[in-house]
């Protein structure tokens, strides 16, 4: 097997960074679960677990930034809810929805890979429109708020990334 298939491209980081990432994932999802228990509305959905991996493990990735995390999930879920109402129920419809989400998030520069799972969740559960607010919007905002606190702990991470002049558009 060629070496490029087994080479780990991710740079090594110290144990303290990964311990903090694990703590962030635990606390972020725990707060989401508590909000769900307090409100009586289930808030934990699988795509949020994948988002936590990026958010706490790779906070310096463009894919982990608040606009991408929140905007990606909200956009993907909104499109999936529309398609769930318009398309026949089939696995082909789910595949189409995921493909459309990938394209739309790319065009909007809101790519967040875990949001690709949102159409699968929506089109298999067939939730009502409130699913967009709870768990998606509430859950993603909660994770970002926890990340803002966690990334201030040592070893400190810059989160969110600062806006650079070269990335701004008029």
Can you characterise this structure?
The protein has 170 residues and is mostly helical. The N and C termini lie far apart (47 Å). Helix 2 runs parallel beside helix 6.
C-alpha termini separation: 47 Å
The chain-level mean pLDDT equals 94
In the predicted model, the low-confidence regions spanning at least 5 consecutive residues are none
SSE string, helices as H and strands as E: HHHHHH
The share of residues in extended strands comes to under 5%
Global Rg? 17 Å
Shape summary: globular
Instruction: Name the structural class.
Output: mainly alpha
User: How many helices?
Assistant: 6
The helix content, as a percent range, equals 55-70%
| Count of DSSP strands | 0
Biggest sheet: strands, sense, closure? none
Task: Please outline the helices and strands.
Elements: H1 15-39, H2 46-57, H3 66-86, H4 91-108, H5 118-125, H6 133-150
Quick structural gist:
The protein is mostly helical.
Task: Supply the key terms.
globular, mainly alpha, about 60% helix, about 170 residues
